[in-house]
Amino acid sequence: MSTSTLAWQRTNDSAELRRVTIERRSLRADDIAVRVAFCGVCHSDLHAIHGATPHMSDDGGLVPGHEFTGTVTAVGAAVTGFAVGDSVAVGTLVDSCGECAMCRIGQENFCHLGPVSTYGGKDRVDGAVTKGGYSREYVLREQFAYRLPEALDPAAAAPLMCAGITMWEPLQAAGIGRGSRVAIAGLGGLGHLGVKLAVALGAEVTVLSRTGDKADDALALGADGLLLTTDDRQMQIARGRFDFILDTISADHDLSPLLRLLGLDGTLSVVGNPLLTGPRILELTAGRKKLTSSGTGGTKGTAAMLAFCAEHHITADIEILPSKRVNEALTRLEDGDVRYRFVLDMSDLGDREA
């Protein structure tokens, strides 16, 4: 039978989230039930709340949240990888076709039939719209849950499941390692994890920012320095300096200045705002440069990212708020008032609705 649980939901076309009771489906054979402990607040949650993600399904009751940790409370009859009491992490995807070329290599994020997102997706079995981790209980296929390494704090690890993997996949695809010259454009919820991961991979890392107010933070995170993109002289001196730039900026911006910072065969990976209009092709021609993007990650990459983060003690820099302050968190996120990721403590929703 289905389970009632409390959640924070957008209703009546309002951007304000309200506490409501929702239903979670009965466990299927390969499902696990998770009591959500901590859920990160992602900038894409803001996009969804404001209706800027037309690819998402909406039944009029959006429940955001796609990076969370918690404890397994029940398992389906065919589940073999988890037991009640296990600590787990869940990310942006909860299902895929499992049969296409992308799914077979562990890149379910690029499933040819479309992966099922943690919220705003359509369940492959019953067609119901998925509701996210701004809730006390969640039900999903065991294949898309990950055992949370003991070395990682559950609250600070939650953002790894979206922000972390969004940084990890393009860094891995570019072969970043010792000797690589990497720049991270934007030092926010994504960018600060990009710095940590690139540094741990052995790269020389520079933060690109419009202002210098985060210079100390950049150094504390392990970066070698901060380059002011508003300083024409600094930008001219740095022309052709980098092998790889990871663009995490969520606002609209011109890509051409970033491309000019790349050396021969350099790559600019845009992950902060994939809706941006691309540069003139000539900007790519000069130096055989490449413009790429990436969307979260599949099961193979996510498992590898978690293991790497556990080995190198990498988690997000977070501010924890009780979930009842979710609207405050969203407002402050929109204003850029967080360093560097909000995480909601879901325990104030109670253990379960009757």
Written description of the protein model:
The chain has eleven helices and 17 strands. It is 23% helix and 27% strand. It folds into two domains: 3-162 and 316-349, Medium-chain alcohol dehydrogenases, catalytic domain (Quinone Oxidoreductase, Chain A, domain 1, Alpha-Beta Complex); 163-293, NAD(P)-binding Rossmann-like Domain (Rossmann fold, 3-Layer(aba) Sandwich). α4 (163-173) crosses α5 (191-200). Strands 3, 4, 5, 8, 9, 16 and 17 form a seven-stranded mixed β-sheet that branches. A six-stranded parallel β-sheet has the order 12-11-10-13-14-15. The chain has a two-stranded antiparallel ribbon with strand order 1-2. The model has no long low-confidence stretch (mean pLDDT 94). It is an alpha/beta fold. The chain has helices at 43-49, 101-104, 154-157, 163-173, 191-200, 215-220, 232-237, 256-259, 281-285, 299-312, 326-334, and strands spanning 3-10, 17-24, 31-41, 68-75, 87-90, 93-95, 116-117, 137-141, 145-147, 181-185, 204-209, 225-228, 242-247, 262-270, 290-293, 318-322, 341-345. It starts with a strand and ends in a 9-residue tail after the last strand. β1 (3-10) and β2 (17-24) form a beta hairpin. Residues 10-344 form the Enoyl reductase (ER) domain. This is alcohol dehydrogenase (NADP(+)).
